Amino acid sequence: MPKASTAASSRARSVAFCGIAVALLAVSAWITVPIGPVPFTLQTFAEVLVLAALKPREAISASAIYLLAGAIGLPFFSGMRGGIGVIMGPTGGFLWGFLVAGIVFVGLRGLVNKKQRLVVDYVLAFVFLIVVYLFGWLQLMLVNGLAPEAAFAVGVAPFVLVDAVKIAAAVPVARAVARAL
Question: Which of 29, 33, 92, 135 stands the most exposed, by the fewest C-beta atoms within 10 Å?
Fold first, then answer.
């Protein structure tokens, strides 16, 4: 196959993977269990899956496109909501946190030997979660005028165990997907 054709095929494949990842992120947000100002969703699972399965540029592009599409009004966020108001609202910090934490994840992952990826992926998934919680907690606190303890109690504490389970499931699924790609 000629080089130009191979490069075009590679770009098309990359665009397709990004599109599928954006769709997965949106659908994962629609699976929502409301329990106060911050709902349970499958976004943590989907984000870690995308970050650990795709190439770094594809994973970050998918997260950025997801945020942009939701910000312009597509119903990509929890409860099938969209718009800049969601990103600037009480739970928007979690959305921003996904992108920033994703950048941290792929940046640190690129520094590690591929033979150690399983353990590293679990560690980085928890680092990812801490960054997401930090952004979400801060914005929830600021937008709702909550004390730090109150924002933590409603925006972080109820999710730690469930998110740990989602991460525990996402890493091996991502490894299987990455091998299949």
Answer: 33
Q: Do 51 and 59 meet the contact criterion of CB atoms below 8 Å apart?
A: yes
**Quick one: how far is CA 172 from the chain centroid?**
16
Rounded to 5 degrees, φ, ψ at 148 are: -55, -40
- Residue burial 104-127, b: 16+ Cβ < 10 Å; e: rest: bbbeebeeeeeeebeebbbebbee
- Taking Cα atoms as reference points, which of 103, 69, 93 lies closest to residue 146? 93
> Rounded to whole angstroms, how far apart are CA atoms 69 and 67?
6
Residue 31 pLDDT: 86
| pLDDT averaged per 10 residues, the chain (length 181) | 71 93 95 81 96 96 97 94 96 96 96 83 96 97 97 95 95 93 82
**Secondary structure (3-state) at 40:** strand
Burial classification of residue 181, based on how many CB atoms lie within 10 Å of its CB (0-12 exposed, 13-18 middle, 19 or more buried): exposed
* Second CATH level (architecture) for the domain 3-180: Orthogonal Bundle (1.10)
